[in-house]
Design brief:
Blueprint: H1 9-18, H2 30-46, E1 53-56, H3 63-74, E2 78-82, H4 89-97, E3 103-108, H5 115-127, E4 129-134, E5 141-146, E6 150-156, H6 164-167, E7 172-175, H7 181-195, E8 198-199, H8 201-209, H9 215-231, E9 236-237, H10 239-248, H11 258-270, H12 278-285, H13 289-302, E10 306-309, E11 312-315, H14 317-322, H15 328-331
Parallel strand pairs: 1-6, 1-7, 2-3, 3-6, 8-9
Antiparallel strand pairs: 4-5, 10-11
Helix pairs in contact: 1-9, 4-5, 7-8, 7-9, 8-10, 9-10
The structure holds adenosine-5'-diphosphate (ADP).
Adenosine-5'-diphosphate binds near residues 18, 26 and 59.
């Protein structure tokens, strides 16, 4: 499964080609767009930089794209970095002192910012001050620098891992959810036009259903389907090409990958369908608990395949039907 940190080079290239550059091109997430426009409008009226913003939600839903749209609206540029790229306090100090007035600083994977570095971020966010410790031991001094007005836009796939002091310093937190099928179809349609590929409506529907409500996956599937059609000398991506593409990628028609099926099958076979505690499940799958909670489960819950209860995880009837296996009651 694609985690944000191991997004492939190919994916990044597709992202760049297909990234919307206007609010109109940015499909769906209407409430978030509405909220953002109000925040940005107010900042423009006051003639100030906008409040610092936090975008949270699964990978590939459009957080980076939104950061660029925000910058465009404010007429500024974007400097980007990420939590893991900031290894020392000095790395962040260098980024901050290089900002031009009105610029956006985009920090991806904000939950991976080292706590020592966070300390540098707080005064920068609150009062545009950079406190640097110069020298060591008794002769160490703190140097205070003024920073230009800027807006920090941070993105995270795991909001619960963000420290409270950091979280509380954002003016607004905007949570992106999975896209519905109609929006994903629109995204595939737009991308197909940009890539110059004809896709039959039935093929769009098949690819959309397997896209896990995620624009990045939708674009990746479209590109693979186009490759498939091209190799087979077809000018149009038809339903057959779409189905074969999913087969090649080991995805089923609902977008489940082998890891998702393994998770469901483990609960069904080893824990009688649940409830099973997440730690026990993580041990049975040899998987990190956080990955299960933040990467696998959200989509399975959206499909109505899995339920999180206080007693643990339970596989729901829809998942049994999808996997074509008999439910607990029928097995009795
Ligand atoms: P994230 O930062 O949340 O991982 P990105 O902003 O990089 O996601 O989006 C991944 C790709 O998906 C973008 O390059 C863009 O092509 C597409 N995309 C994301 N959101 C939308 C949207 N609302 N409308 C159209 N395309 C989108």
């Amino acid at each position: 499964m694609n985690k944000p940190s191991n997004q492939s080079k190919d994916d990044r290239a597709i992202d760049l080609t297909l990234r919307p550059t206007t609010w109109d091109e940015y499909v769906g997430q209407e409430k978030i767009k509405g909220n953002l426009k109000i925040i940005l409008e107010a900042a423009k009226k006051r003639g100030e930089s906008a409040d610092h913003l936090l975008f949270s939600g699964p990978a590939g839903l459009g957080k980076t794209t939104l950061a660029y749209l925000v910058a465009r609206e404010l007429g500024g540029m974007v400097k980007t970095t990420s939590g893991p790229a900031l290894e020392k306090a000095g790395d962040l100090a260098a980024v901050l002192t290089n900002l031009n007035p009105g610029e956006i600083l985009f920090i991806d994977e904000a939950h991976r910012i080292n706590p020592m570095i966070e300390e540098v971020l707080y005064p920068a966010m609150e009062s545009r001050k950079l406190h640097l410790v110069v020298g060591k031991g008794p002769s160490a001094r703190t140097l205070s620098l003024d920073l230009p007005p800027f807006t920090l836009v941070a993105a995270t796939t795991r909001e619960n891992l963000l420290s409270n002091p950091l979280r509380s310093r954002f003016g607004a937190t905007l949570r992106l959810g999975y896209y519905d099928a109609e929006d994903i179809k629109k995204i595939i349609d737009r991308s197909a036009r940009i890539l110059g590929v004809t896709v039959a409506p039935e093929a769009i529907a098949i690819l959309a259903r397997a896209s896990r409500g995620t624009p990045r996956i939708a674009n990746r599937l479209l590109k693979r389907a186009r490759d498939f059609a091209e190799v087979h000398g077809a000018e149009t991506v038809d339903a057959e090409a779409a189905r074969k593409t999913l087969e090649m990628l080991d995805m089923d028609e609902a977008g489940l990958e082998p890891q998702d099926r393994r998770l469901l099958m483990t609960i069904i076979e080893k824990f009688n369908g649940g409830p099973v505690g997440v730690n026990t499940l993580a041990a049975a799958l040899s998987e990190d608990r956080g990955v299960i909670e933040d990467i696998y489960e959200p989509y399975l819950m959206t499909l109505g395949f899995l339920q999180r209860s206080s007693a643990g995880r339970i596989v729901l009837p829809a998942a049994y039907r999808h996997l074509k296996i008999k439910g607990k009651e029928e097995l009795l």
